[in-house]
Amino acid sequence: MDYRSVADLNADVRRMAWDLPRDVDAVVGISRGGVLAADLLHQTTGRPVLRLDDGTLRTGSVESGATVLALTDALLDGVPESPVTEDDGVEVLTGAVYVGDGVETLPDLWVDRIATPCAFEWRALHPTRLGNACVDIDGVLCRDPTPEENDDGPRYREFLRSVEPRLIPDERVGWLVTCRLEQYRPETEQWLAEHGVEYDELVMWDLPNKAARDEQGGHGEYKAEVYDRVGADIFIESSEQQAVVIAREAGKPVYCFDTNQTIPPGEAADEYGYDSYLVRFAENPRSFLRTAGRHVASKGVDTVTQTAGMFR
After folding, report:
1. Helix/strand/coil for 134
2. In Å, how far are 99, 126, 216, 227 from 152, measured between CA atoms?
């Protein structure tokens, strides 16, 4: 999947600034991403950014005869209709930072071709995308349980029934993907209904109990498998460690709610310090240490001596 971050957008807008015709007097963003691109272009060139009232150009916001660049962040199909027209007494140029590889009618100004499917960091949480998104529950829609609440018993069930909401989406979510166990589906569905969370599918981990889940580990890998299988565009995950694993294993971007950043897909996720052993340890230290202890014991005293020597 072709991916562009906000940093990429900023760099490519600066490239557009180099080729911006001198007679462009002002810029208007014709999409949400276009407004961001227009503001970035203003920082580089000083060209004023025109604002719209109900989708139309404000009367008197630009002089008659001026040249206006109608800018969008990405043009993936046909040229979008501009709110600025020749009838406003201005000359209109069309622009896009990115142009899809299948687009035949090019805008007047553009920077780079982009392969589809593609993903953009600045569009990650756009409400219209949640219908094709995977969203974590604990840490996003509500807080995580405390160690005392997470007893796989009555206190945990009470947490599921009464935990306060943190973020309730305004739009319907495609898939809620959680490491909660399948046996807790009734409490989870009841809480979601009480708080008005709309979704197409609730995916829960089908393991017998918390001990089995802790022993198996691989929370990020489990979520990555779901992400890949359902064909979603974005995964919104609370844990940074799991977000890195999901992005790397699924080869698609993941928005980390805790750090407010998008982890790029595939091997690029390595930039965020991916290490499978560290992630397993962060997910469940006890399980990791038990497994490591059994591994060392099976290898005998020579392995113990060699391992100890690494830390001298």
Report:
1. strand
2. 50, 35, 16, 26
pLDDT per residue as tens digits for the range 121-153: 887 766 556 889 999 999 999 999 999 999 999
Strands 52-53 and 56-57: antiparallel
H or E element at residue 254: strand 254-256
Enter the pTM of the model.
0.62
| d(C-alpha 304, C-alpha 312), whole Å | 13
Torsion sign across C-alpha atoms 202, 206, 211, 217:
negative
Q: Is there a single domain that holds both residue 131 and residue 109?
A: no
CA distance 66 to 111: 23
DSSP state of 148: T
Range of the domain at 16: 2-120
**DSSP letter string, 42-81:** HHHH-PPBPPEETTEEPTTSS-TT-EEEEEEEEE-SSPPP
**Is residue 296 one of the residues assigned to a domain?**
no
* Nearest one of 116, 97, 121, 94 to 105, comparing CA atoms: 94
Please give the helix or strand (H or E) that residue 226 lies within, else none: helix 219-230
